[in-house]
Amino acid sequence: MLYHSHLNVDNAVNLDNTNDPYNLMEISSSSITNNSTITGTQAGQIALAQANDTTPKSVVTLTNNGTITFIWSKFSWNFFAKNGIVKNTNDITVENSSSGIYGLNNTEISNTGTITTGGSSTGIFYSDIEKKTQLEM
Asked: 3-state SS of 20-76?
């Protein structure tokens, strides 16, 4: 498991392939930099996701210098960060009912790239309020 570490993604990632090395990794409270291509077509996929369990928030820095594309997928996020830093410098695409960047709890978000969204989707979503589901109560 990577913990308080940094992962550099420099090979293409297929989130649909359960045997893709990226999908087999366990990463917690770490930084991830994508310098390649990440693709997926299934509902509920997340390309780069981390929740910070400590301070400073720079422990969790998610950076996209490559391309992230979700085609035909619903309820997906290219980025998810909680109390971290998100930097997008290139192209990300999400389909219907999804978010390009989803940030919670004091997450810094920077976008100098292009975010393409489908119907009922958001390019960037941010909130300091976490809504608990019925299952979590």
From this structure: CHHHHCCEECCEEEECCEEEECCCCCEEEEEECCCCCHHHCEEEECCEEEECCCCCC
The tokens describing 106, both together, are: 């004091």
Q: Report pTM.
A: 0.91
Burial of residue 85 (CB within 10 Å: 0-12, 13-18, 19+) is: buried
Give the number of other CB atoms < 10 A from CB of residue 23: 14
Q: What is the pLDDT along the chain (137 residues), one digit of tens a residue?
A: 999 999 999 999 999 999 999 999 999 999 999 999 999 999 999 999 999 988 899 999 999 999 999 987 888 999 999 999 999 999 999 999 999 999 999 999 999 999 999 999 999 999 988 766 544 44
Return the DSSP state at 18: T
- In angstroms, the Cα distances linking 97 to 6, 43, 72 are 30, 10, 11
Phi-psi region of 54 (alpha: psi -120 to 50; beta: other; left: phi over 0): beta
